[in-house]
Amino acid sequence: MNIKTKVLFISFFLLTTFLQAQEKRKTLPIIPAPALATITKGEFTLNSNCMLLINDAILVQEANYLNNYLLSNYGYQLAISTSFIKPKKGNYISLELVQTENKIEEKYELTVSKKAIVIKANANSGIFYGLQSFIQLLPFEPKESLKITCCAIQDYPRYEWRGMHLDCSRHFFPASFIKKYIDMLAMYKMNVFHWHLTDDQGWRIEIKQYPKLTEIGAWRKGSMAGAYDDNKFDNVRYGGFYTQNEINEIVAYASMNHITIVPEIEMPGHALAALAAYPEYSCSGKPCEVGMKWGVETNVFCPTEETFTFLGNILDEVISLFPGKYIHIGGDEVLKDEWNKSAFCLNLMKEKNLKDAHELQSYFITRIEKIVNAKGRMIIGWDEILEGGLAPNAAVMSWRGTEGGIAAAKQQHYVVMSPGSHCYFDHYQGNPETEPHAIGGFTPLEKVYSYEPTPDTLNAEEAKYILGAQANVWTEYITTTDQVEYMAMPRMAALAEVVWSKKENKNYDDFFLRIKLQQDRLNRLGINYSKTAFNEKKK
Ligand code: ACM
Question: CATH: 3.40.50.2300, 3.30.70.20, 3.40.1180.10, 3.30.379.10. Which one for 27-155?
Answer without folding.
Answer: 3.30.379.10
